[in-house]
């Protein structure tokens, strides 16, 4: 059955895009153009995707895992690179 008659997009195609990771009408539109012309199919796309199609984001402050590096570690490594480049160029690193 056609969901988007403007671009000839079928329900099967919408479901395939959803299985590939598209979980909002906007993402379906990016993948297939469905819903980008007259817009009359957007509600049909929403109903195909269903409620809760997108994975829920965790609230701020409830990270699943602790970071493996600190903010300072990349800066220390960058400082070492800057010193090495300055030394090889005959400059004095600050």
UniProtKB/TrEMBL annotation:
- InterPro entries assigned to the protein according to its UniProt record, in alphabetical order: BFD-associated_ferredoxin (IPR052371), BFD-like_2Fe2S-bd_dom (IPR007419), BFD-like_2Fe2S-bd_dom_sf (IPR041854)
The organism of origin for this protein: Streptomyces niveus
Q: Any idea what this protein is called?
A: Bacterioferritin-associated ferredoxin
**Ranges for domain BFD-like [2Fe-2S]-binding:** 2-50
| Keywords assigned | 2Fe-2S, Electron transport, Iron, Iron-sulfur, Metal-binding, Transport
Q: Is Metal-binding among the key words of this record?
A: yes
Q: Name one Pfam family in it.
A: Fer2_BFD
PANTHER family from the UniProt entry: BACTERIOFERRITIN-ASSOCIATED FERREDOXIN (PTHR37424:SF1)
The family line of this record is: Belongs to the Bfd family.
